[in-house]
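tool_log.txt
---
The assistant was asked to compare two proteins side by side. It first ran the structure predictor on the initial sequence, then on the second. Raw inputs and outputs are pasted verbatim so the downstream comparison step can read them without reformatting.
(1)
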Amino acid sequence: MADLKAKFEKASEDAKQLKQRPDNDTLLKLYALYKQGSEGDVSGPKPGFFDFVGTAKYEAWAKLKGVKADDAQQKYIDLVKKLGA
């Protein structure tokens, strides 16, 4: 498990160094997988209607409700590798 956590943290750093900025859908997926892998299920109130970015992030994370942290971390690692980090 510690090995997965180390790979997850490394992928998080690698994601910041991507050569090309991913499209918005991919960025939302990265965000949601990171949050699910590090904090678990979505928590807190949904952002207000006019907070479009906050709402999109919240909804992307909420779609992963019930996904185990280990699974989310592995999917995050795989996605970062696929993006060429």
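(2)
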Amino acid sequence: MQWYIRIVDNMNKWIGKIFCWLMLPLMCVTALEVFMRYVVKRPTIWAWDVNIQIFAAITFLGGGYALLEKSHVTVDVFTINMEERKLAILNLITSLFFFFGMGVLMIGGWEMFKMSWKVKEAMPTIWAPPYYWMKLLVPIGALLLLLQGISDFIKNLYILFAKKQGGSKL
């Protein structure tokens, strides 16, 4: 199972490091819009839509990387001093809720994308770019999170059984 961990961890690390660079065009488009709106007094009709699309890509495709790097917000007041084996057990139990949530998000996101694609949905703005591709990011992002969650689940199993048997952990 270590091959799975290596593949998924490297894939999410690669995707996260690539998509973090989208912050630069996001900042540039925002700065351009502020300049056009307040200095030139001629706001664009496209900047807000582009910002939403770029941010959607960063948010949805960066979720697996955030989980890999333990960057999601956690309430660790009860677990901060918990021994590693007990924490692994707790993580294994709570993973079931995570897997259920990601499954619902993947299925619901896929249905949402299919409906949007079918009607060729566009953003409800003056510029009105296609909206359906952003909705495709929902099930893709959920899949990346799910794969990373499975990787973390396996890591917790290694911790649990390595500690029981006195072996080295992953």
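---
observation on (2): The chain has a mean pLDDT of 93. The longest helix spans residues 84-118.
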